[in-house]
Amino acid sequence: MGGVKDPRDLRSHQWYGTDGLRSFSHRARTRQLGYLPEEHLGKPVVAILNTWSDINPCHVHLRERAQAVKRGVWQAGGFPLEFPVSTLSETFQKPTPMLYRNLLALETEELLRSYPVDGAVLMGGCDKTTPALLMGAASVDLPAVFVPAGPMLPGHWRDKVLGSGTDMWKYWDERRAGLIGDRELAELENGLARSPGHCMTMGTASTLTAAAEALGVTVPGASSVPAVDSGHERMAAASGRLIVDLVGRDLTLSRVMTREAYEDAVTTVLALGGSTNAVIHLIAMAGRSGVRLTLDDFDRIARTVPVLADLRPGGRYLMEDFHFAGGLPAFLGQLTDLLHLDRPTVAHPTLRAQLAGAVVHDAEVIRPRERPLAAEGGVAVLRGNLCPDGAVIKHIAADPALLRHTGPAVVFDDYRAMQRTIDDPALGITADHVLVLRGAGPKGGPGMPEYGMLPIPDHLLKRGVRDMVRISDARMSGTSYGACVLHVAPESYVGGPLALVRTGDLITLDVAGRSLRLEVPDEELARRRAAWVAPAPRYGRGYGALYTEHITQADTGCDFEFLSREGAVPDPYAG
């Protein structure tokens, strides 16, 4: 081990090293697994938490990468054990993997606590797995390293380079507008996602893995290594070696994931023009680390941080371009005056040391400070009588003409009903209208699905309209774009002001003023509130009922109340 920890001080020693019946049983059962005593006794036991699945294309290569992690652990003198944990596939899991983020966090926490584990390697990358794994591991507070799944290869169609998600939305609207047909769409199906790995735009997956690297819980540069690049396997092996060293030094997550680290993660997300989903996830992750992070922190930092990554959906390039431009170390090297450089990371004594020598190789992809993509961070936090607890908008990916807009609302109470009726000319929707969806928040969704990029009516698409103001208590994909106000809190399901909006009400969005207002007199809103009736519960039993009873609102991270509150949890007695 890289440190000087006595093997008798290892947590796993309680299971394996004492002179008692239980230790005898544990050793005997390990022989049953086929291991010799010298392969594991007195060595750090490293849990490899693997979110691989046949139905998760973002993680379909992680079964092989786990072997590289094991190789690194063995080389460094540790004893690796792979644990399969829940896979949260953004592509396939319904109604949304956000419903199950806290379930994976709970599974991670309890698995690491209940088994003879001294440290952990966390393998994930698809949107919800990164925060879930880190939330659970932070709650146990063992040494841990995160291994990002990595972005897929760039997409291709004819002479176009495609970005997964972003170009899916774009070309689907082109088809609705009658500009492309079924033949082109079939070709796009084959070219949009060409390899294992998560979305290669600066969507939620890349945003959260970059945040993990900025927090200091990966090997340097890990977050942008393409999933199918041989460098990804080398990164996985290096992570396996690193975790053994961290156990030896007893460098737990609480010493790395500090308030300073979370502020730097927020700075990173905003300077990348990253996903709005990072707001919810970082607040939840920080809560598990005992750090109070708020929407106001995001807005405060956003006003001081330029956007320097020219990445889709707000820019031109993709993650492979970013990686070969220098990756996150080079990117953060452009922001050193805004970062806490003297905090530790899992790989270096300080962030300053980790960034030393990093060089930008392409100043178009990673912009210099004097030539930013935008002067302020790409996400704005809104307040007002329609969102007293806040809402967010990724204004860097919106039509600038809509960032100060007043228009009449068209209200939809149900996403499926909206899908059926949005194209109906009888609704009289114009480009000046404000599309409002409610019933799509944490409890109402359920799980706060990515419904927030509401479709533009096809008759407007055919006239060339490509953006409208849209407001909801839902989230949207980090690969999405448009003037979409999201995460309205409190949500309509619990009686937030969004529940009181009626079709025809004027709504004013003012991003510069950080305001979202319903232009209805307070007396009228009071009358509507008095007449409001709470909706029936979505779930009568099961996990959904547990979720509904304990989930918090978007502004506080959508964690379970009983997982986010303070309180001691004892280590199990292994004897």
TrEMBL record:
It comes from the Bacteria. NCBIfam families: PRK06131.1, PRK13016.1, PRK13017.1. Residues 43-352 form the Dihydroxy-acid/6-phosphogluconate dehydratase N-terminal domain. One of its GO terms (molecular function) is hydro-lyase activity. Transmembrane segments: none annotated. This is Dihydroxy-acid dehydratase. Residues 364-558 form the Dihydroxy-acid/6-phosphogluconate dehydratase C-terminal domain. InterPro entries: Dihydro-acid_dehy_C, DiOHA_6PGluconate_deHydtase_CS, ILV_EDD_C, ILV_EDD_N, IlvD/EDD_N, Sugar_Degrad_Dehydratases. Keywords: 2Fe-2S, Amino-acid biosynthesis, Branched-chain amino acid biosynthesis, Iron, Iron-sulfur, Lyase, Metal-binding. PROSITE patterns: ILVD_EDD_1. Belongs to the IlvD/Edd family. Gene3D superfamilies: IlvD/EDD C-terminal domain-like. SUPFAM superfamilies: IlvD/EDD N-terminal domain-like (SSF143975), LeuD/IlvD-like (SSF52016). One of its GO terms (biological process) is branched-chain amino acid biosynthetic process.
